[in-house]
Amino acid sequence: MTATISPCAPLPARPADESGVALDVATLGRLVGIWAHPDDETYLSGGLMAAAAANGQPTWCITATAGEHGTDDPNRWPPRRLSRRRRRELRHGSDVLGVRQHHWLGYPDGGLVDVDQESAVDRLLGLIERLEPDTIVTFGPDGFTGHIDHRVVGHWATLAGTLHGSVRVLHAAKTIGWIEAFAPLHDRFPIFYPGYPQGVHADRLAVDLCLDDALDRKVRALRAHATQTAPIVAALGWTPWREWVRRESFVDGSPTEAASSLDARSQVQRDALSMATTIVG
Questions:
Q1: % of the chain with per-residue pLDDT over 70
Q2: C-alpha separations of 90 from 42, 85, 86, 159, 179 in Å
Q3: Strands (DSSP E) along the chain, which ranges?
Q4: What pTM was estimated for this model as a whole?
Q5: What is the pLDDT of residues 21-35, one digit of tens each?
Q6: What is the largest CA-CA distance in the chain?
Q7: What is the pLDDT of residue 262?
Q8: 108 prior amide bond cis, ω within 30
Q9: Which CATH fold topology does 26-274 show?
Q10: Residue 6's pLDDT band (boundaries 50, 70, 90)?
């Protein structure tokens, strides 16, 4: 049976022109997600991947790091222990979504800006050539939260997809209306770096999904990432958090836009130094 996803009902305080775009996920074909840390794939594309897997579409996930520094309690979760835990969480979450194929790149959490870009892009290009996806989903230029690893991976993935030449690249995005609607929740929990996410106008969206039957599966997968999701659920509350993760939106990716968001390597490094804590990473 083909799974479909319908437009969201209007969110509170959403501008009237931000109507959803009905989409049959089967049109996206073979899907690969390219992300920075375990749980990124589920937060930003879990419903999409679950629906695609339910359709019988081949789905894969590529993760750059194990997220070994993604904690505000390093005494309880030293890097090696957290790495092992988050790898298990990703396996469990992927099983829930139905994503059976996964590839680790093995790069250091928080250190992607120092990885040789040519080598990283070449590795991704090799995987894309082997997997032959129709669509790549990844971070947009803002990295959603502003996390430097997110921004770097999104740039690598977009460049690799462009070099391949026969794959569509979609960037995860949030509309200005979504950001405004959930601003009270964002004020209660430091999910984003200052100035992020950088909202887009609704008319730029290529895919705008409101999860219905796929939402329960996405939520179960997110709860598998307990080291990351439990504090957010506790802070926001179950029902608001569930609504916060319901919508998944994407714009068509541009390598020029992704590159300009990084500007220059030295600027990225300055950004990294200013980001002393990990937020949703």
A1: 82
A2: 9, 9, 6, 25, 27
A3: 31-35, 59-63, 101-104, 135-139, 168-173, 207-210, 247-252
A4: 0.87
A5: 335 788 999 999 999
A6: 50
A7: 52
A8: no
A9: Rossmann fold (3.40.50)
A10: very low
